[in-house]
Design brief:
200 residues; mainly beta; six-stranded antiparallel β-sheet; five-stranded antiparallel β-sheet; 15 strands
């Protein structure tokens, strides 16, 4: 091993992974995924698909999960900066309803592994962010679930975000500190709070 550093998070099932970056005057090289290193670190997930998205500043995607075919996700940012969040939806978990967040950026090159049983989302803090992730199951149409990103019972502290909860997941009235309006899809503005959300 030695190519990655794996740190457990305060919530079981979440891991921060830092690859070894080899740099010189020409730039850098790193392994973004190595199955052997992961297994030596105790992470035995198998990935079946890679996804990539591009979003502009103020976009919040989430909080998403798949109900019957839950996905583990290994996420990273290759351009820009996001604040990435996972919320525990495992009904038997001591940390049910708790959240953990981490800044992922092209500079810090950190990766975040989110096991099955969590809702996931991120807020874009840079002008543009390109977000890559590996998943342990395929996307199944009609199986998607969601959780209100601003549910006060969960209390996610989204950095740079200003606004007051009005009882729904609507983005109306929310902005970043520089005045950029919060930008959510129509679907993400209609998710229910934790008390009405699917449990694993």
């Amino acid at each position: 091993m030695g190519q990655i550093k794996v740190s457990k998070c305060p919530i079981e099932g979440l891991y921060v992974i830092e690859p070894a970056v080899h740099g010189d005057s020409r730039g850098y090289f790193m392994e973004t995924y190595n199955q052997k290193d992961m297994e030596e670190a105790g992470l035995n997930m198998k990935f079946v698909q890679d996804n990539q998205s591009c979003s502009t500043k103020g976009v919040l995607r989430g909080l998403h999960f798949q109900k019957e075919f839950p996905q583990g996700k290994l996420v990273r940012v290759i351009k820009g900066t996001v604040f990435d969040v996972a919320v525990d939806l495992r009904s038997g978990s001591e940390t049910y309803g708790k959240w953990f967040g981490i800044e992922l950026s092209e500079e810090n090159k950190k990766q975040f592994y989110i096991s099955e049983g969590f809702a996931h989302g991120f807020l874009v803090l840079s002008d543009v962010a390109e977000f890559c992730y590996k998943v342990t199951d395929f996307y199944h149409p009609g199986d998607e679930g969601g959780l209100a990103w601003n549910d006060p019972k969960i209390g996610i502290t989204w950095p740079q975000l200003k606004g007051e909860y009005q009882g729904t997941a609507s983005a109306e009235g929310y902005t970043l500190e520089d005045g950029t309006a919060l930008n959510l899809s129509d679907k993400d503005q209609k998710w229910a709070p934790l008390k009405d959300t699917f449990k694993f």
